[in-house]
């Protein structure tokens, strides 16, 4: 009897995580087209870590506010094992190791088509395929909060 109760609890936790994941992704997508603003956390302007901070908060989950701090949480994920909900981190500046940008994997369409949403400094909040020369060269790590 105890074994069946623990199975029920783990099933409920899995369902909760699934609903949280859907909420995080749909909230992030609701910001598509929002202009970039350093330090921004609303529809008038959003930065990359703010987008994820607000999106996770909408699902009742607290994550750190900055991309560097977000890159230290959750569990490690290999690039080829990315799945929706994973955070992907990039070094966009001159320092090749310093995390300066973050996005959220929204969809895995195939081995060479993994979509992530992020706040681009030039285009605002957009969804992009991570499998481009630009992003694969700047990719540094991925973390899983779900």
TrEMBL record:
InterPro entries: NLP_P60_dom, Papain-like_cys_pep_sf, Peptidase_C40. Keywords: Hydrolase, Protease, Thiol protease. Coiled coil: none annotated. The keyword RNA-binding does not apply. Transmembrane segments: none annotated. Residues 18-146 form the NlpC/P60 domain. PROSITE patterns: NLPC_P60. It comes from the Bacteria. SUPFAM superfamilies: Cysteine proteinases (SSF54001). Belongs to the peptidase C40 family. This is NlpC/P60 domain-containing protein. It comes from Marivirga lumbricoides.
């Amino acid at each position: 009897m105890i074994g069946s109760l623990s199975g029920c609890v783990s099933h409920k936790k899995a369902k909760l995580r699934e609903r949280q994941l859907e909420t995080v992704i749909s909230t992030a997508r609701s910001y598509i087209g929002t202009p970039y603003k350093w330090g921004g956390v609303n529809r008038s302007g959003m930065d990359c870590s703010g987008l994820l901070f607000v999106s996770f908060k909408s699902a009742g989950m607290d994550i750190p506010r900055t991309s560097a701090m977000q890159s230290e949480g959750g569990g490690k994920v290999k690039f080829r094992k990315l799945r929706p909900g994973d955070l992907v981190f990039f070094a966009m500046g001159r320092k090749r190791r310093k995390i300066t940008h973050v996005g959220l994997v929204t969809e895995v369409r195939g081995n060479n088509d993994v979509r992530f949403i992020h706040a681009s400094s030039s285009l605002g909040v957009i969804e992009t395929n991570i499998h481009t020369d630009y992003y694969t060269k700047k990719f540094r790590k991925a973390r899983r909060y779900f």
